Amino acid sequence: MTHCRDRSEILAQLRAAAPSVLPSLLSCDFSNLERELQQLQEAAVTSLHFDVMDGVFVPNFTYGMPVIAALRDRTNLIFDVHLMITEPARHVKHFRDAGADVITIHAEAVNDPRPVLDEIRRLGAAAGLAINPATPVETIESILPNCDVVLVMSVEAGFGGQAFNEVALEKLKQLSMVSGSDPLLEVDGGINVATIGGCVESGAQLLVVGSAIFSAEDYQVPISELRDVAKGAIGISGN
Ligand code: DX5
Ligand code: ZN
């Protein structure tokens, strides 16, 4: 495996690319992953977002380590793995071994996220903590020093293609106020050209996008458009 980025390198690359669009492979064409990967690389994305669902923490079921490991052999992109699973502590090492760079667990899935976040860092990955729309920022405020990334869900975790929930904007603003630029702020769910600008203005640096990319014929078109709107929202002109 060519993959050997450590946590500081992962975070430096994510910061350098921000604000950035992370395609969520949940809505991709799984019958031709190699072609999907090629199209996304041509669109110059820096990171891919993997939605791992176990049918228990969320009703839906997706994929696990083998899919991530198979793609790891084909690309050097940063792998951002969003675990929507119960008992994440049992699995984080396997996801790191499969090639995950950022490993995000859900606050609602554990009693105390701290030991799992610390374990993710010990494995050399960046540690992410996700909160669903109903979970207030206050419940994770004391845990922010253990997080490299906070993922604010703008839909209830579990399915792609849902409508953006504006509660995420308030939470992003709140997190920006309390945390400055560390941890990195990520938002996921219902992001499109109409909603991405507000997310970036509210402090999001990593923008996860599924259906708005994969419903297009040529992924490069929505990705460049989303990137331009995201950069424009904080006064950076497109490339
Ligand atoms: C939802 C997932 C998201 C989802 C985003 O549980 O975490 O990553 O795939 O998809 P869209 O952009 O379609 O809301
Ligand atoms: Zn996700």
A few lines on this structure:
The protein is an alpha/beta fold. The protein contains nine helices and eight strands.
Structure report:
This protein has 239 residues and is of the alpha/beta class. The protein has nine helices and eight strands. It has helices at 7-17, 33-42, 65-72, 92-98, 114-122, 167-179, 196-201, 211-214, 220-233, and strands spanning 20-23, 47-53, 78-84, 102-106, 126-131, 149-153, 184-188, 206-209. Strands 1-8-7-6-5-4-3-2 form an eight-stranded parallel beta sheet. β3, α4 and β4 (102-106) form a beta-alpha-beta unit. α3 packs parallel to α4 (92-98). The longest helix has 14 residues, at 220-233. 46% of the residues are buried. The model has no long low-confidence stretch (mean pLDDT 96). The chain binds D-xylitol-5-phosphate and zinc ion. Residues 24, 26-27, 49, 51, 82, 155, 157-162, 188-191, 208-212 line the site of D-xylitol-5-phosphate.
Ligands, deduplicated? D-xylitol-5-phosphate, zinc ion
Global shape: globular
Structural category: alpha/beta
Low-confidence stretches: none
Q: Give the distance, in angstroms, between the N- and C-terminal Cα atoms.
A: 32 Å
Write down the secondary-structure element order. HEHEHEHEHEEHEHEHH
Name the strands of the widest sheet in spatial order.
1-8-7-6-5-4-3-2
